[in-house]
Write a structure and sequence with these properties.
By secondary structure, the chain is of the alpha/beta class. It has 3 domains: about 60 residues, Winged helix-like DNA-binding domain superfamily/Winged helix DNA-binding domain (Arc Repressor Mutant, subunit A), CATH 1.10.10; about 100 residues, 3-Layer(aba) Sandwich (D-Maltodextrin-Binding Protein, domain 2); about 100 residues, D-Maltodextrin-Binding Protein, domain 2. The chain has 10 helices and 15 strands. Helix 2 crosses helix 3. The N and C termini lie far apart (about 55 Å).
Amino acid sequence: MKEISALPLLAKVVELNSFAEAARQLGVPTTTVSRKIQQLEAELGGKLLNRSTRSLSLTELGVQVLPKAQLIADTVSELYNQAEEHSNQPVGTLTITAPHAFSQDILAPLLAEFSVRYPTIKLNLSSSNRFQDLTKQNIDFAFRLGPLHDSAMIAMNLSTVPYVIVGSHRLIKRMGTPNHPMALFDLPCIRNHVDGYFLPWRFENNGEIVEVNETPSFVCDDFCVTQQLVLSGAGFAYLPASLFRAPEVRKQVHFVLQEWVPQNRNMLMVYQDRKYLPLKSQLFIEFIRENQAKIQRALEAE
């Protein structure tokens, strides 16, 4: 393959969403970057990027080629850094995405520990409840609630995630304790959403299935904020039990309808199915495996 040197250029252009910025960071003329990628497209027999005056996007062929380009870019970066530093230390940047509540409550202290252990690896955490495409957004690892629907990805099952219907003691004293999911229709509830999609409230017990889909009295896009709303008595919420594992928090609330709440959710760590993972990624996977029991205790609210 004549234009293999263009693959790291493609990875950098996609990462920065700009030919000019990629050229600036790599210290080469913009025309060189553009010409190299055009030559690569000619060799592969198809366009890799859709270009407009304001944006770039990957073509179908580009989506297939990008993971290989990223792997080559990572490998080249590691080789150059190791040669310059005369060191066997792992180098590079790990880009990680995880939901807000998981990032704040569980992942942040683990990443701090990882950073101390491997100071030459840079970390870029995107704390977001939005679904993010690992390939298109150059993400190394994503922490997500399962199940996994993309067979092109690898998923490490970290833990079950018990959910609860929860209300504060003062709310229950004022409104009463619901003894059936249908009772929630007449009570103040806080529903969570991601990009306008309401997370489902589905209940099942002895073959009876109930779904609560009514417009709620309170809407929120962040579990941690919803937790505070619950503690303030704003309404009942459907949340991970781990948010209430701290004794000073747990004593303020009551879990209701527990026999109705399905317990079929799992926290996964998802990453791209690559034959050869860079050293930084291998070390991160090993680190998460090492701390899996800690993650499980936190998520299962033990």
